[in-house]
């Protein structure tokens, strides 16, 4: 926990066995990537009404919406990618009780087999961060997902379900934000800087 914010509980219920998919700045110091944009999602499929249903605006950070895994010990080049990861969308539902906000978040993640992919499982790490006024980081939690890509298939996806209890501590819901992105290593950041992914 950062910034002396009261601790919060997080409950996670991953939902697996999702369908195959046909296709595929908040705080630069925190995410170690400059010039980030964001893709906002709200409490429905609409992508422009994050606070319409009493939820903080939810944003998938770009370019942190993409990541890649490589053959160990090999140069970070496209031909050495074992899996690509994409955060496709996120939807939020909220319930406010007193000075507490319960956030239910569904994050859709896609694993796509790369040229060097020899296994059927993509292991991806992403984060969910809550921001306050002035984009200060109130909390950031890491999450891990495993996506099984069936033999002969190129990609598959899972929806990760997360529930968090957020003490508002006097903050208005409109002052809060939820940022989602992959936890990228410096090597992955450098890869996307030079190759722009696939």
Explained architecture:
Helix content is 7%, strand content 48%. By secondary structure, it is mostly beta strands. The strands form two sheets. Strands 1-9-6-5-4 form a five-stranded antiparallel β-sheet. The relative contact order is 0.25. Mean pLDDT is 77; it is low at 1-11 and 13-52.
Order of helices and strands: EHEEEEEEEEEH
Average pLDDT works out at 77
Largest sheet, spatial ordering of strands: 1-9-6-5-4
Give the overall form. Answer: elongated
Give the number of DSSP strands.
Answer: 10
| CA distance, first residue to last residue | 35 Å
Evaluate the radius of gyration.
17 Å
User: What class do helices, strands and sheet pairing give?
Assistant: mainly beta
Number of domains: 1
Sketch the major β-sheet: 5 strands, antiparallel
Percent of residues in β-strands: over 45%
State the low-pLDDT regions, or none.
1-11, 13-52
Assembly annotation: single chain
Label this structure with key terms.
198 residues, mainly beta, 5-stranded mixed β-sheet, disordered N terminus
């Amino acid at each position: 926990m950062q910034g002396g914010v009261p601790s919060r509980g997080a409950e996670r219920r991953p939902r697996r066995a999702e369908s195959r998919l046909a296709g595929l700045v908040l705080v630069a110091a925190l995410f170690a990537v400059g010039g980030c944009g964001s893709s906002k999602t709200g409490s429905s499929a609409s992508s422009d009404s994050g606070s319409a249903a009493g939820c903080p605006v939810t944003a998938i950070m770009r370019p942190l919406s993409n990541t890649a895994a490589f053959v160990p010990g090999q140069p970070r080049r496209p031909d050495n990618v074992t899996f690509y990861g994409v955060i496709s969308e996120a939807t939020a539902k909220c319930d406010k009780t007193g000075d507490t906000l319960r956030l239910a978040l569904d994050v859709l993640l896609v694993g796509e087999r790369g040229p060097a992919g020899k296994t059927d499982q993509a292991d991806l790490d992403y984060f969910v961060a809550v921001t306050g006024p002035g984009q200060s980081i109130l909390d950031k939690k890491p999450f891990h997902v495993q996506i099984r890509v069936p033999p002969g298939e190129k990609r598959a996806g899972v929806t990760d379900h997360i529930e968090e209890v957020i003490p508002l501590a006097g903050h208005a819901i409109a002052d809060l934000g939820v940022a989602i992105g992959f936890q990228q290593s410096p090597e992955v950041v450098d890869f996307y800087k030079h190759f722009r992914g696939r």
